[in-house]
Design goal:
mainly alpha, globular
């Protein structure tokens, strides 16, 4: 039993660590193709977290959520984003609000803040889930940060998806379970948001020839 628990703890640490590293990479990279690939990698890690929690706690709803994550976060959403990026005239984000050094410094500060803010929660429990909660909270903060500093429509939506992935992992770890109905509703909302993004980016490219959000300031009623 101890060996199985130790293996679960190590695999869970690895999966949540990949979620956090992917969030940092998504902020570091400027290539839209690379950002979408990193998002798909993070989606796979989130699905792995749900699978591990479901197997360890014998929760069928978490296993079902893992399958839902795999379909939506690894296949469907990245496929829609790939289509948008292929049609974009500029394959790189050229005008972020913060340069690479400032962005990486910001992610480091937010990670430290997340670990400091959740130190009390970690101290309340000794489970495998409680020890990796700070990393999941850090992903939530990094997602917010990405939505602030990125000015490209695709990159900013990726920031929103990073935020949602962080919230999903926090919910899985904090409750050792996640309502499949709630996650299904969230997944459908995310898919709808990405489809709306596809329509918006098509109109932006036709009117402005690019995907920078500053172009929206030129719109008038």
């Amino acid at each position: 039993m101890t060996t199985a628990t130790d293996t679960y703890r190590q695999l869970l640490d690895l999966a949540v660590g990949v979620v956090l590293v992917a969030a940092v990479l998504a902020l570091w990279r400027r290539s839209l193709h690379a950002i979408v690939r990193v998002l798909a990698l993070q989606g796979a890690a989130v699905a792995a977290v749900a699978l591990l929690v479901g197997v360890h706690h014998s929760e069928p709803r978490d296993l079902a959520a893992a399958g839902l994550f795999a379909v939506v976060k690894i296949v469907v959403i990245p496929s829609v984003l790939w289509r948008i990026v292929r049609e974009a005239p500029d394959q790189r984000e050229t005008e972020p609000l913060a340069n690479t050094a400032a962005t990486l410094l910001g992610t480091a500060v937010l990670t430290v803040v997340a670990f400091a803010a959740t130190r009390g929660l970690v101290g309340l429990g000794t489970t495998a889930e409680s020890t990796v909660l700070p990393a999941a909270f850090a992903v939530v903060l990094i997602g917010f940060f990405a939505m602030v500093v990125r000015r490209n429509a695709v990159a900013q939506v990726v920031g929103f998806l990073l935020l949602e992935n962080g919230i999903a992992v926090v919910a899985l770890l904090a409750s050792a379970g996640l309502s499949l109905g709630v996650e299904l509703a969230i997944a459908l909302d995310l898919l709808l948001a990405v489809l709306v993004l596809q329509v918006l980016t098509t109109r932006m490219q036709a009117k402005f020839g690019g995907l920078e959000l500053d172009h929206l300031n030129e719109l008038r009623d």
